[in-house]
Write a structure and sequence with these properties.
alpha+beta, four-stranded antiparallel sheet, three-stranded antiparallel sheet, 22% strand
Length: 239
């Protein structure tokens, strides 16, 4: 089997759950089988505009990043990486609840935790640490490119150590709902927020349980990310 271009550790809701269906339909793509879905339609947002606003997160699939996409180093195999995912999940015994709120996060819209979660921060750090040995180190040119992206001194330090700046104390869990809204009209942003509040009402009311880690891959450069396997906490079983 060809080696995918990149791999990532994501949180993704259980397949066929309400949380998975809501997010996948919002983005217009199911990352399990890479098939397009009919996205929701809202009276104040044209279908073309909505498709444009969600095009960037559609590429990555419905998820929250735990370990950012990385290339597999040449000394590691897919089976070894899969074993590491299994071990990571198996050693995390208990699921935890995560209440959510809608937020304009940076310049895009996302669902984020409505209160701090030490369990989440600890698990995300473990994902970075325990999968780090499988990642191909960034080239010097790529490191320089990413370092010049307006990062703080702390974020530059983390980028150099872990290959990504938004980890450890700089990590913030987010389920992305849109691409950049920097140049989007204020009323369009408000209409999008209203639409998201309505569409994701069940998640905003009930939150979700973090009970697994999912393996996603990007099979080729600039291609869509796809769901590969889900590993439940405290179990060897995968669904």
């Amino acid at each position: 089997m060809p080696i995918p271009f990149r791999h990532a550790a994501y949180f993704a809701p259980a397949l066929n759950s309400q949380a998975w269906d809501l997010g996948s339909q919002w983005l217009g793509r199911c990352a399990r089988n890479s098939t397009p879905l009919d996205p929701p339609r809202f009276k104040n947002i044209s279908s073309e505009l909505f498709d444009n606003l969600t095009s960037t997160p559609r590429l990555y699939g419905w998820h929250a990043t735990l370990k950012a996409p990385f290339e597999l180093n040449k000394n590691s195999s897919l089976e070894e990486l899969r074993t590491a995912f299994k071990q990571l999940a198996h050693n995390t015994e208990e699921a935890f609840h995560l209440p959510l709120k809608l937020l304009e996060f940076g310049d895009f819209l996302a669902l984020v935790p409505s209160q701090p979660s030490p369990e989440l921060q600890k698990f995300a750090a473990r994902c970075v640490q325990e999968l780090h040995s499988f990642a191909l180190p960034l080239s010097e040119s790529e490191l320089q490119r990413r370092t010049g992206a307006g990062l703080t001194a702390r974020q530059k330090e983390l980028l150099k150590e872990w290959g990504y700046p938004f980890v450890m104390d700089q990590f913030q869990f987010h389920l992305t709902l849109s691409g950049s809204l920097k140049h989007v009209d204020h009323q369009v942003k408000e209409d999008l927020k209203t639409a998201a509040q309505s569409w994701f009402a069940p998640l905003l009311e009930n939150g979700l349980f973090v009970e697994s880690v999912s393996w996603f891959t990007q099979d080729q450069k600039n291609g869509d990310f796809r769901w590969v396997e889900r590993f439940e906490f405290g179990k060897s079983k995968c669904v």
